[in-house]
Amino acid sequence: MSHPIAPMIIRGEVITDNLIEVGGRGGDLTFLTPDANRYIDRLPLGNPTRLADLYKLSFDDILDYAVALGERLAFSKNAYLQEACELSYLTAPTTPTIVKASYMGLQNLLSREVITEMVESSVGVNYLEGWVRQKLLDGTELEVRCFGARTLHIVAGNAVALSLWTIIRNMVLRSDAIIKAPSNDPFTAAAIARTMVDMAPDHPLTRHLSVAYWKGGDQAFEQRLYQPQNLEKIVAWGGFASMKHVTQYIQPGLELISLDPKRSASIIGKGTFESEASMREAAVRLASDIGAINQKGCVCARTIYVQSGTDEQGLEKLNTFGRYVYDAMLTLPNSISTAPKRYDQNLKAHVDALRLDDEWYKVIGGLAGEGAIICSQIPEPVPFSTLLDDRTANLVPVDELNEMLDAVDAYTQTVGVYPESIKDQLKDVLPLHGAQRIVSLGYAAAMKFAAPQDSIEPLRRMGKWISNQIASPETTPAPWLRPSL
Amino acid sequence: MTRTIDEKVELLLTDPVALVEHSYEKWNQLPRDEVDALQLAAAKRRFAEMRDRIPVLKKLADAEAIDRVEQVEDLVPLLFEHTVFKSYPPSLLEKNNFTAINKWLCKLVIPEIAEAIQAVDVSGCQGLDEWFETMDEAVPQLCISHTSGTSGTLSFLPLSNREFEKAVKVRRLYAWRMNGPETPAPDMHSVYPYYRKGYLSHMRGNMAIMKTVLPSLDNFHPAYPATLSSDVLHLGAKVRAAHAKGTLDRLVISPELMAKKKAFDQLQADMPGHLAAFFEEMTARLKGKVVYIGGTWNLLHNMAKAGLERGLEGVFHPDSFIATTGGAKGVVQPQGWREDVLRFTGARKIFETYAMSETPSGSHALCEHGNYHFSHTAIPFVLDPETGKALPRKGRQTGRAAFFDLGADLRWGGFITGDEITVEWDKPCACGRPSRYVEGAIQRYSDKNGGDDKITCAASEQSHREAMDFLNTLEL
């Protein structure tokens, strides 16, 4: 059987020559892709003045392009996407229905209003369109503008939409992007790029996107590409090891924008237990935060602190709630959650061990690898809390709200809170402990790109902020006119 | 002497060296078919004895609806994962709640031992070292050992002194080159390049070996006279875990632990003196003698390097017995470490085995053809790493190693390792031993997958050092 090809796209050109075989670990798909070493000199933009063509476009032109691309990314009509989707079933960490739903949703990201909202709330359209002028106290006229940059994007492979978000961010900033496709999603970015090539082969936005796959950790290759004369910024998503790996190339002139490995937690307040209805509601919302994209996202809840109380009555409430959460998880729509693709065997060993001794932890479900809810019977998380994955979450009972702060540390991204009424008590304290995003319970997976991300603002940081000072001795005190001492 | 099958099974379980009339030649030549038949019968007996008497086993057997063992594969669903030995809440150790730890431990052992454990008052123990000491004294049948995990949680293994004794008698066959019960006991000495005592599983095994192979414990010559503190090792594991989680600032250090650190600093200061005395003892009193040296490869190598730097070579008698648990498993061993050890000690070869803390009877000896031959006292399994199901016991199979340790007499001996092995079930080894064997390198699955949840025996020294480094930052 011949292996599928993940093509390389360099600035409008689709390359399928000089193929080498990659992948195939642990029964995964083996695919062919052009040997990046053969094209390394063509991948970087080289002279940055070549970004100038992007500045002939207005923001409106960019939106027009985005909308036209959106129409072409209609899943039912796009053969590239359909093919990439089929192949992604084999490489993705999630299951086919989730992958397909993500592909079907891609075109929705390319709406005029959504992109405008994202830019306005994070950068401001006028800073991208031209110089924004203000007058300073000393009379200086200050102009500030946000320029694009030559950027390498190391995209995460856990969610299909990340490639398209990267492309959109690149377009609005008038940047030049090289996307290093992840091994567990080698097809999506290329399928979008090919659609762009078909649509407008010579358009500057098409000409400033490249997509390639190379094996992360190829030091000779990376050492050559990751140089300030080729790139100004690296945007990296990923796990601890890959992030550590990238940092070795960072030097003056080459900036790292790091979307670190993150975990997420939830906080369930006392009010939840006031009625059966609110318990049920919280259970469904929590199930969604745990189960969305099969818990493969950093946004997904793993350790959940529950103010059920820790006495016998409290534990009974907790265990009932845990059962509700488990039941709700099993009935989530298959477009966001299914039984996991392959239940982590290391995690299973831990969960099964707890099952043999239920004095301190009660395990609900998990026998068939469908995911499990572990209810701690003491106010502390399971010792293996950092391994929680594949729809396995840990509910931890506490008496007081402030005990829940243990849930939050430097790696915490999202904290889902229920009921809404306790958020005001928490939202000024959680960030001190490390929390970076606070959401109404159930909305963890509804990531908003108009919001800051991972306590940074990637879109702002992906741009180069340039200032122009306009001054003369008539308007502004001049340095050379200062008196001598 | 002709024995019935039942008598032989009894011996395999209680006194395996008697089964081969105390001859290492006979041990090595035990026929395959006989081993298979005895092991199956022994496993049946163990399961029948323990099924309803060890609470955790009963729970697992109930869940799997297994009431009897017909063939060895029936044991596979009943093998314990390593996680079983650390399924207690870590806070119990923070709070020195050893009463609760003991209660947890009771579920892993037979009722007689559980009763003995319950009867011990450990409520006043101020740390792991004190707890181990108290338990050793109060329940002498038991030899609780620990391994150190990077997740910050220690595994506790309820091993028995009896099982160590049975296992090291097998080792003695080799060390004494025994050819029958009347083989004379040599006047063996032992040097040990580390602490006198410790509760880490591999150090526990060492002590048992000393008691069995040496005429007297006075013949045991450790480098440091102290006890390796398990409290400090535990801190090392916690520091590592907290580093990974970014919560180092939340670690609480007890005054007792700080006191241990002071004692260690003193030892550190006295170290040159201890080492000088250690090498002095070797060269002055033990030169040319037959010694037994057991230890992790890095300890052996460090000793050899230090000795060679002092200009010492061929210190002991060529018949000396040097034993180590081989297989680097993710650790890069320096080139030439074996040669250094042999040059320094003067021994002819190193006796290497593949072994793990959880199955002390499963010490699988390396032959001259580079294969690890399974010990008769442990039933090996190769499991599919994805499904956990047993792979066929024929041909060549690569998968996760698991064992049923027949030596385990007060706990359940079934255990799944984290190691990937390749077993040759049919083809006999060129060395002439009929037993089945592990071929090629042994790898940890966790290394293959990029993470590691267990510090191997050889790395405990590093864990200790990390803890000390951390304590040093506190004093500043």
Give the arrangement of secondary structure elements:
The complex is a heterodimer of chains A (485) and B (476).
Chain A: E1 8-10, E2 13-15, E3 19-23, E4 30-34, H1 36-39, H2 59-72, H3 79-91, H4 96-105, H5 112-122, H6 125-129, E5 132-135, E6 141-147, E7 150-154, H7 161-173, E8 176-180, H8 188-199, H9 204-207, E9 209-212, H10 219-225, E10 233-237, H11 240-247, E11 255-259, E12 263-268, H12 276-291, E13 301-306, H13 312-330, H14 345-355, E14 361-365, E15 372-376, E16 392-397, E17 412-418, H15 423-426, H16 430-433, E18 437-440, H17 458-462, E19 464-470
Parallel strand pairs in A: 7-8, 7-10, 8-9, 10-11, 12-13, 12-17, 13-16, 15-16, 17-18
Antiparallel strand pairs in A: 1-2, 1-9, 3-4, 5-6, 6-19, 14-15
Chain B: H1 5-14, H2 16-19, H3 24-29, H4 32-50, H5 55-64, H6 91-94, H7 98-106, H8 111-118, H9 128-138, E1 142-148, E2 154-160, H10 161-175, E3 189-198, H11 201-213, E4 220-228, H12 230-245, H13 255-284, E5 291-294, H14 297-309, E6 321-325, H15 337-345, E7 350-354, E8 364-366, E9 372-373, E10 378-383, E11 396-405, E12 414-424, E13 437-444, H16 445-448, H17 460-475
Parallel strand pairs in B: 3-4, 3-5, 5-6, 6-7
Antiparallel strand pairs in B: 1-2, 7-8, 8-9, 9-13, 10-11, 11-12, 12-13
